[in-house]
C-alpha cells in the first residue's frame, strides 16, 4: 500500500508538469492549428534560463522562475512573429517542418552556448524529504506540484473568465467570425503562441532543480507532450490536463510494477493504442478548447 | 519530374559519371563520404514515395531503416533467443549475407504494411505523431531487448556483403571503392523501382490522392490500398538502406533509430524537391557533401543551425524545393486545359 501511495505521489508531481507542457501544446494546436515541433525546446530554454539566472547571475530561484516565464513568453512571441505571421497555417505539414527547423536551430544553439555537459540547478529547499506515513517526498517536488497546480488553475481562469480568454475561444471556434466581431486574430495568434511557450518554459524552470539540464532534454519532453495531447484530444485543454496526469501515472505505475527500462516507451505505446482505438482522444467527444 | 522518361540519356550519363568516380578520383576518404551520403539518399528516395507522392508526412521513417539494419545484421550473425512459452531457445544460425540483406528488406516491408494498416486510419497531425511514436518504440526496444540486440553494447563484426565474380570467386565488398559501387547499384535500382512505380497507374493514383483525397475517392481510387502500397514500398527500400548501412559500417547500435536520421532524410527530400524523382538525389548529394566542405571550418552545432535555417528558408521561399525551381522554366508551356468556348446566351 505504501508503495502504491508513493507511486501515486510521484506520478502526481510529474503529472503536474506534464499538464503544463500539454496544455501549452494543445492550446497552440487548438487555436492556430500549428503542430509545434519546437515545444520541447521551449521547455529546455526555460530550464537553461533558470540555470543561467540562478547559477550564473545569482538570482533568487523564485525570481528566476518568473524571469524564465517572461523569457519563454518573449521567445514564443518572436518565433510566431518572424515565422508564422502572414503564413498560410492551413498548410499544416509545411508549418510543422518549419517548426522542426526551429527545433534544430534552438537545440544546437543550446549545445553551442552551454556545451553538452548536463548542468545542475541548486534547489532552494532542504534536501531532507518530508515523510508522511510510508510516503516520502522532497520539498522541491512539493513546490513543483503546488506551483504547477496554481498555474493550471489561473490559466483556466484566464481562458474562461477574461476578455482575452473569450477572444481566444472565439478564434478557436471560428476565426473569420471572430474577425468580424472585432477580434484582432493575428494578435491572438501571437499571444497564444507566446502563452503556450511560456507554460513550457515554466515547466522546464520548475523541473530544473529536480533533474539536470541538458540540450537534448527537450526531445523526450516534446514527444511526451504529444502523447499527452493525443490522450486528451488535440485542442482540448481539460483533456491535456487529465492526459498529463494520466500519462505520468501510467508511466510511474508501469515503471514500478512492470518494467523500469520501458518507462519512456509507455507513452508512445499509449499513443499507438489510443490512435488505433479512439483517435479523437480519451476525454473528448470532439476537438474543442475550454 | 519526368527526368527518366524525357531523357534516359541524361540519367544514363549521370549514372556513368557516378560509376566512374572511384576511377577518376580514387580518394578513399571521399569515396566513403559519398557512399554514406548515398545510403541516406536511398532512404530519402524511399521516404519521398510517402512524403512526396502520397503527401503523407511520415516522421518515423528511420524505424524502417533501423529494422532493416538490425534484421540484416542479426540474420547474418545468427542469434539465439529464449522466448517465454517455448521450452527450447530459438536458435538462428548465421545466414549468407545476401539472404540476410533480403530478410532485412522483407521484415522492414512487413512493418511498413503493419504501420500502414494502423497509421492510415488517421491523417495530418495524428499521422505524424503515430509515425514518430512508432520509431521511438522501436528505439526503446533496440535499447532494452539486450538478449537480442545487445542494446547499447552494439552489434559488432557484421560481415560485409559479397560479390561472386566468374574467375575471381566470392569477394568481400570491403574496399572503399567496392562499397561505393555497391551503394550506387542499390541506389540506382531503388531509383528505377520508385520511378517505375510513380509512372504507373499506381503512381498516378497516389498523386491524385495527394492532390485531393476526397476527389480521388469519388472517382474510385481505393485510397487506403494505394497508401498501403506506398508504405510497404517505402519501408522495404528504407530497410535496404538500413541493411547497406549495417554491412558497410559493420557495427550498429540503437542510435540507428535516432530522430535526427529521420530529420536528415526529410531535409534531403524537402530541399531537393518532394514529389520529384531527382529531388532526394539532389538534396541528398547537397546535404551529404556540404558537411565535408565545412568540416574543420565550422563546428557541428553551427552547421546544424545552418541546416535548420536553410530548411526554414527553403520552406518559406522555395516550398517546392530546388529541382522544381530549376526545371520550372524548361517545363513552362501553355496550359493544357483550354477554356471551353462560351455558349451563346451565356451572360456570365
Structural notes for this entry:
- The complex is a heterodimer of chains A (290) and B (348).
- With 290 residues, chain A is mostly helical.
- Chain A has one domain: ABC transporter involved in vitamin B12 uptake, BtuC (Orthogonal Bundle), CATH 1.10.3470.
- Chain A has eleven helices and two strands, in the order ααααββααααααα.
- Chain A has helices at residues 2-32, 39-56, 61-84, 92-114, 139-161, 163-173, 175-180, 185-207, 217-232, 237-257, 263-277; strands at residues 130-132, 135-137.
- Chain A has a two-stranded antiparallel ribbon.
- Chain B is mainly α and 348 residues long.
- Chain B has a domain at 30-260.
- In chain B, 68% of the residues lie in helices and 4% in strands.
- Chain B is built from 15 helices and four strands.
- In chain B, the strands form two sheets. Chain B has a two-stranded antiparallel ribbon with strand order 1-2. Chain B has a two-stranded antiparallel sheet with strand order 3-4.
- In chain B, strand 1 (79-81) and strand 2 form a beta hairpin.
- The longest helix of chain B has 27 residues, at 28-54.
- Chain B is globular and about 55 Å long.
- The two termini of chain B are 37 Å apart.
- The chains are: A mainly alpha (290), B mainly alpha (348).
- Chains A and B meet through helix 4, helix 9 and helix 11 of A and helix 6, helix 12 and helix 14 of B.
